[in-house]
Amino acid sequence: MANHASAIKRHKQSVKRNARNRAARTRIKNVVKAVRAAIKNNDKAAADAALVTATSTLTKIAGKGVIHWKNAARKVSRLAKAVNGIEA
């Protein structure tokens, strides 16, 4: 453990930030899972609603720097493509 006050503060901040980022990544997994479950059930309305939520969540989390913005864009694109392919 650190001995200097500034190092102690940095450690506390990193622990707090790590917990916040881990929660955000878990949230991403859950919203993506919800969209995929709706797609699997061929429920277009539920998939559309879940996609809106997932898009919003991914954009916010990418904006905070937890994941890269291109990673978020790729996930949104793939989910949207899958949702649009339900009725086809």
Strand content: under 5%
Instruction: Tell me the CATH architecture.
Output: Up-down Bundle
How helical, in percent, are the residues?
over 70%
Question: Can you tell me the number of structural domains?
Answer: 1
Order of helices and strands: HHH
Instruction: Write down the Rg.
Output: 17 Å
Mean pLDDT, all residues:
95
CATH homologous superfamily grouping: Ribosomal protein S20
The name of the CATH topology is Methane Monooxygenase Hydroxylase, Chain G, domain 1
Distance N to C terminus: 58 Å
Low-confidence stretches are none
**Structural class estimated from helices and strands:** mainly alpha
**Net shape:** elongated
Please work out how many helical segments DSSP would assign. Answer: 3
**Given this structure, which CATH class is correct?**
Mainly Alpha
What does the largest sheet look like? none
- The total beta strand count reads 0
What report would you give on this structure?
With 88 residues, the chain is mostly helical. The protein has one domain (5-84): Methane Monooxygenase Hydroxylase, Chain G, domain 1. The protein has helices at 5-40, 44-63, 69-84. The longest helix has 36 residues, at 5-40. The radius of gyration is 17 Å and the shape is elongated. The protein starts with a helix and ends with a helix.
Short précis:
The chain is an all-alpha fold and 88 residues long.
Topology:
Layout (H helix, E strand, L loop, with lengths): L4 H36 L3 H20 L5 H16 L4
Helix pairs in contact: 1-2, 1-3, 2-3
Provide tags for this entry.
elongated, 82% helix, 3 helices, mainly alpha, 88 residues, Methane Monooxygenase Hydroxylase, Chain G, domain 1
